Amino acid sequence: MPDAAPLRPRTEQTHPQARGLDTREDARILSILLEAQLEAVSAVRAALPDLEKGACAMVRAIGRGGRIVYGAAGSSGLQALADGLEIPPTFGIPAERIRILRAGGFDNMTVPREGAEDDAEAAARDAEVIGPKDCVICLAASGNTTYAVTIMQTARARGATTIGIANNPGTRLLEADIPVLLPTPPEVIAGSTRLGAGTAQKVALNLMSTLMGIRLGHVMDGLMVNVATSNIKLRGRAEGIVCEITGCQPAAAREALEAAGWRVKEAILIRSGAKDLAQARQYLDAAGQNLRSALAALNTGENPGNRVSTHQLGEDR
C-alpha cells in the first residue's frame, strides 16, 4: 500500500472559497478577500502571550545597548522592512539601532534575485553583523525559509536573543528562543502569502514594536513623546503633543521645543517646571527616559540626582 501523500503546509492549501473564484462578480471576490484578511488578523490573537515576550526581549536589547535585527525573505522581508523603518521616526530610537537583513538585499527590489531565499551562505555572511546584545526577529510564512532560518541559527550561536515568526506549526523558525506561531487559514490564492499570512505578520510586528516603544517610555497617553521632528509635519505634531500634555498654547510649545532642541520630552519638562534643558535631561535620565516618571519627580520637587537611574530598564524585564 503506497504511503499517504504528505500534508501540505496550511499556507499552501486551498481556501474553501477559492473554487470558482475567477467566475464570481468583482464585489463578491473583494468580499471573499476581505473576509480572509480579517480571519488572518484574528489568528494573531492566539500569539499575544508570545508577542509580549518578544516585545520584552526587544526592550532588553535596546536597554543594554543592543539592536533590533530583522531577517527575512520575499514578502516577509517587506513586512520586516516596513516595521523596522518606522521605529526610528515613531519612537526616536536611533536608526543605527535597527538592522534589516533581507535575502537579495535592497538594490532594485522590483527585480527578484533568483535563489536568494535559499542562499544559506549569503545569510551567514549577512548575520555576521549580529552581536550578543541584539534581539533578532526572523520571519517566514512557511517557517522553513533557508535565509531566515540561517539568520536565526547564526544569531543564536552568537548569543543574541531570537524571535521566530511562522504561519505554519512544527517549522524550524519556531525553534527560536521566542517562537511566535500565527495560525492563519489557507490563502484565497493558494501559496500567495503576501495576503493573509503577510497581513498577520505585519500586525504581529506592529504589536511587538509598539509595545516596545511604550515600555521604553516613548509613549504617554497614546502620544509619541519621543517622535522625530525632522520635517514640518512632525514639528507641528510635536507642538500639538506639548500643548496637549502641558495645556500650553502653540507659541509657548514652540518656544519650549526650541529651547529643548526640538526634543519633545525635554520640552514638556521645561514647560512643566524644569529650569533648563540640562535639568530636563537629568530628570529623564534618572527616570530611564520615562516621561511620566520624570514628570512625577519634577512635580514633587525631587532632586533627580538622588534617584537611582533606571536607564537599563530592559535588564529587569
Structural write-up:
With 317 residues, this protein is α/β, with parallel strands linked by helices. The protein folds into two domains: 173 residues, 3-Layer(aba) Sandwich (Rossmann fold); 98 residues, Helicase, Ruva Protein, domain 3 (Orthogonal Bundle). Helix content is 45%, strand content 9%. The chain has eleven helices and seven strands. The strands form two sheets. A five-stranded parallel beta sheet has the order 2-1-3-4-5, with helices on both faces. A two-stranded antiparallel sheet has the order 6-7. Strand 3, helix 5 and strand 4 form a beta-alpha-beta unit. The radius of gyration is 23 Å and the shape is globular. It starts with 25 loop residues before the first helix and ends in an 18-residue tail after the last helix. The N terminus and C terminus are likely disordered.
Brief account:
The chain is an alpha/beta fold. It has helices at 26-42, 48-63, 74-91, 120-126, 146-157, 196-215, 232-246, 250-259, 264-271, 277-286, 291-299; strands spanning 68-72, 98-102, 135-140, 161-166, 178-181, 219-220, 223-224. The relative contact order is 0.13.
Topology (elements, then pairings):
Elements: H1 26-42, H2 48-63, E1 68-72, H3 74-91, E2 98-102, H4 120-126, E3 135-140, H5 146-157, E4 161-166, E5 178-181, H6 196-215, E6 219-220, E7 223-224, H7 232-246, H8 250-259, H9 264-271, H10 277-286, H11 291-299
Parallel strand pairs: 1-2, 1-3, 3-4, 4-5
Antiparallel strand pairs: 6-7
Q: Features of this protein?
A:
single chain, 317 residues, alpha/beta, Rossmann fold, Helicase, Ruva Protein, domain 3, five-stranded parallel beta sheet, two-stranded antiparallel ribbon, 11 helices, 45% helix, disordered N terminus, disordered C terminus
